[in-house]
């Protein structure tokens, strides 16, 4: 199961993601991104604290987000767990998107 | 199992059970699921004609410390192990729209074997328990990268 | 998988995943779990010396509507398919204290196959989707009962 | 996971069972039964509403209960789901223990 909640605050749109983002759930993530793109926010924050899994179908959504939002717009991934962050890094996408990780001891 | 994306939920459950029996840790469980998921997703989306109800057979062998999955499909002949498929260099101004799936599968699996037998594609994925908790990216470099 | 009763939790999970991939209903899922659980429990409790750390390998093959499990162990040679093992007639004053496991496994599985290969026991359990929701007891009667 | 809760009311002891009763959990079920047997109740009720699975190891516990409790004592299984009840019936134990099933449409 994948769930996404939209939070708009000023010029920033945050998508709180949870569950599994695979080829089954990617289309609905895509739809949400399309909706967000029409609002032309300054910053898109993908809050992945609750996301337990991402596959290439989900990564494709991130690429889409980066492309759809204008060049002057920031796309930030935050709260991704180690596995999810590693998967995104494996695709080389950290060169186009900011990935903010938190570690606690 | 019908070749539809809805089946991916059951696949994840099956992989999870195999992981439990093998006693794999969290990282190894993740990369096994990723490899199997990517390969099956490709069979569903590229191997069978859209909206056809193809069938996928799954076989899993498990012992302490390793899991093997054999994916059998009757779709287009396709060898996921062949060809150089480096991760496309990501240029922020010119992002690739796809092509991550096979790279992720190949980097995640400890072994990936393919054979065409008659009308069948037989794809084998093996993941073994890794010594460390997190397998460094470089150590999972597929043979074609070195 | 280590041959200890603690492993039964992982076995149940693995069976559950296979059932999801095969699309089996609740009753079929239950009798598959029961058959596999009873056979593995027997390997753990009778096949290996107590407190030895034997190993059990599990293989599962799944397609739409059926699941096959192959249990491989290195314990005492034992054929769960041989011998007449009718359910002991239960006399309230003289209840049997055991001996239900093999009967339940044989009644629950649609097929049960055993072979000894070298030092290995190979036991195969097959469950197919049943037409009806609840399979009548009589229809699952093992061959040796008829 | 298997859980058992004991409820004593007059001469009746009820064991509310839930989860999976297999070879892993059977020893603790056995222990509870042993404890109950020392109280010599008139009636032992095994409330299986929450029990999702029983294997022969669990059935052996029922046999033990029937044997340990005196002849004048009633052992009743109630609330078992169809699969659990069928498993108990497959062992022929319904001849020694009362199985009360409820069906609703
Ligand atoms: N099972 C398959 N059958 C046929 N073609 C496939 C199969 N798997 C992959 N391909 C081909 O390889 C390409 C790359 O696959 P992949 O790296 O997973 O990226 P994507 O699926 O995003 O295109 C696909 O676009 C497709 O042309
Ligand atoms: N894997 C095995 N290896 C050796 N002996 C076995 C095995 N499985 C069953 N047996 C023998 O068959 C008997 C009957 O088994 P079963 O019907 O499961 O009842 P129980 O386990 O309660 O005794 C066991 O007591 C044991 O002697």
Automatic annotation (TrEMBL), chains A, D:
Listed InterPro entries: Anti-sigma_ant (IPR003658), STAS_dom (IPR002645), STAS_dom_sf (IPR036513)
Domain of life: Bacteria
Pfam family, one: STAS
SUPFAM superfamilies referenced in this protein's UniProt entry, alphabetically: SpoIIaa-like (SSF52091)
Residues annotated as signal peptide: none
GO molecular function: anti-sigma factor antagonist activity
Residues in STAS domain copies: 2-105
PANTHER family, sorted: ANTI-SIGMA FACTOR ANTAGONIST, ANTI-SIGMA FACTOR ANTAGONIST TM_1081-RELATED-RELATED
Family: Belongs to the anti-sigma-factor antagonist family.
Annotated NCBIfam families: ant_ant_sig
Name the UniProt record assigns to this protein: Anti-sigma factor antagonist
Source organism of this protein record: Streptosporangium sandarakinum
TrEMBL record, chains B, C:
Positions of the Histidine kinase/HSP90-like ATPase domain: 1-124
Keyword Transcription regulation: no
Pfam families, A to Z: HATPase_c_2
Classification via InterPro entries: Anti-sigma-factor_SerPK, HATPase_C_sf, HATPase_dom
Domain of life: Bacteria
Record keywords: Kinase, Serine/threonine-protein kinase, Transferase
Listed transmembrane segments: none
UniProt xrefs under Gene3D superfamilies: Histidine kinase-like ATPase, C-terminal domain (3.30.565.10)
The keyword Transferase is assigned to this record: yes
Name of this protein: Histidine kinase/HSP90-like ATPase domain-containing protein
Species of provenance: Streptosporangium pseudovulgare
């Amino acid at each position: 199961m994948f769930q996404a909640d939209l939070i708009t605050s000023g010029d920033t749109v945050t998508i709180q993601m949870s569950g599994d983002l695979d080829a089954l759930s990617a289309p609905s993530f895509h739809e949400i991104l399309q909706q967000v793109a029409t609002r032309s926010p300054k910053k898109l924050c993908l809050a992945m604290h609750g996301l337990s899994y991402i596959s290439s179908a989900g990564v494709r959504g991130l690429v889409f987000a980066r492309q759809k939002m204008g060049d002057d717009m920031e796309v930030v991934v935050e709260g991704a767990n180690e596995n999810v962050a590693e998967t995104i890094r494996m695709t080389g996408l950290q060169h186009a998107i900011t990935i903010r990780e938190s570690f606690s001891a | 199992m019908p070749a539809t994306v809805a089946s991916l939920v059951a696949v994840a459950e099956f992989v999870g059970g195999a992981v439990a029996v093998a006693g794999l840790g969290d990282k190894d469980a993740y990369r096994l699921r990723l490899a199997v998921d990517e390969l099956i997703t490709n069979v569903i989306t590229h191997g069978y004609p859209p909206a056809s109800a193809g069938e996928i057979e799954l076989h899993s062998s498990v012992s302490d410390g390793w899991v093997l999955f054999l994916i059998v499909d009757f779709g287009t002949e396709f060898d996921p192990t062949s060809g150089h498929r480096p991760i496309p260099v990501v240029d922020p101004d010119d992002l690739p729209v796809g092509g991550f799936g096979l790279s992720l599968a190949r980097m995640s699996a400890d072994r990936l074997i393919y054979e065409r037998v008659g009308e069948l594609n037989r794809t084998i994925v093996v993941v073994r328990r890794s010594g460390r908790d997190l397998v460094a990216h470089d150590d999972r470099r597929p043979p074609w990268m070195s």
